[in-house]
């Protein structure tokens, strides 16, 4: 579900211990006389020296562009690995088993640490860097040590419980495969956690590039694994009467499982190791610290209770969607193909790719600023950061939604119809992609608003209003399975997600307004109407072009040309329509380009 870490040895990892030459710009002058550490929650000792003025041009737009470039390459290569692995193993029994097992370490990481990190620890990193005389180094070292111990113990425990987890989530025909994959993939939850915390250390110091760029290496590792699997196993595999390969468990060997499972985990480990140079440049070294009493554990526990409620509810929803998707595929009659977990996951990853390239980059750039504004109770400044982030993200996401809706079929055929992923699987993915285009905007805007609560380290509100959201989502899953034809269950699952995202958006907007005042939504809504109208014009033009396009179901070149030509045309029409409709963000972009050209 996500793309997204170095194994602790008996002592500090040498990759993280070397201090860069020279003094650190955020260090307190008293630190040289003797390290003074705080708890990351309030100023300790002499006031820290304020950081030097930000260099000219260093702002949210620049940071977002830097991360957007890294996230673009990362997400594209991440999606490339999905395409390669899908082509190697298909969307049938083997593909659904691999995808199901791949969810487990991420789900458990979220339960153990992920939600707590996003909502509590990241803001505390920013506060520690701002308030502690050592720039928050000791706070981060303690937290890293504690997280490594907790996540390491959790990784051992859940790996031993792999058979139980598989039985809870998979259909009987999948049990053995999912269990064997899980033994190899569940240890990755330790590395997911380390990568998240080390990325938080860098982001709190406004070093945004590496966390966005190093996942590319992880993706390249898994792409290599998928390519090797295809060359060794898929190319010579014999399909069944419906054209599906690896349709039975006895066709999957131990070598296949080891290559896919161990290769996927190796990519996450390498990803963590590659953060070392960026950490050195940021002036951070990790050494083991066991003085956990210096951490604000009481406050973390207090806030974490609500966060765990939020995360647990979300993971119950994830478990429900995996179970329902597997059940739909498991109820297929004979050789009939019914979309399951792999098709759902691929469509969901398309949404997360768009969200990650645009909205996550904006969120990551805004989070330190929103946290500082909330820490000083500068509510108008927090509102302005949130409003500008929503406007910028929406302007960039609207044409992507239009492309997913208007061009779902050519995009799915061009991207997915390779190797073991046949035409029926690609067409089913296209139907799911259409629904992704509808739900993308409410998802991204709701996530941006949730992070405004996280900037205030308020997890109680998010945890409480998330309960009805998750209840609606799971109820939608059950309705989709009960009333829709099996071939449309995955589309129904994504539609249920969309309804819950819209409810989350409306609830968070209402609660934020009571907390911090007007959110400037009138201006935001006006921009959305204009950009939405531009996207509707562009989408209609692109869809008309697809209706006139010759049949490309058996032509890979035709599929690629259709997706590329019509997608480019959609973007061009969108930008032109934005100029006609006087979309504010388009005018700003045009002015920036003109200024650059005059230099």
UniProtKB/TrEMBL annotation:
Species source reads Glycomyces harbinensis
Bilayer-crossing residues are 72-95, 107-126, 146-169, 181-201, 213-233, 253-279, 303-328, 348-368, 389-420, 432-454, 461-480, 486-507, 528-549, 561-581
Q: Which UniProt keywords apply?
A: Cell membrane, Cell shape, Membrane, Peptidoglycan synthesis, Transmembrane, Transmembrane helix
Q: Where is the composition biased (Pro residues)?
A: 45-55
* Principal place of residence: membrane
Domain of life of the source:
Bacteria
The molecular function GO annotations come to:
lipid-linked peptidoglycan transporter activity
Ranges for region Disordered: 1-59
Record-linked InterPro entries: Lipid_II_flippase_MurJ/MviN, MurJ
Gene Ontology annotations of biological process type? lipid translocation; peptidoglycan biosynthetic process; regulation of cell shape
**This protein's name:** Putative peptidoglycan lipid II flippase
**Localization terms from the record:** Cell membrane
Question: What's a GO cellular component annotated to this UniProt protein?
Answer: plasma membrane
What topology does the record note for this protein and the membrane? Multi-pass membrane protein
**Pfam families with a match to the protein in the record:** MurJ
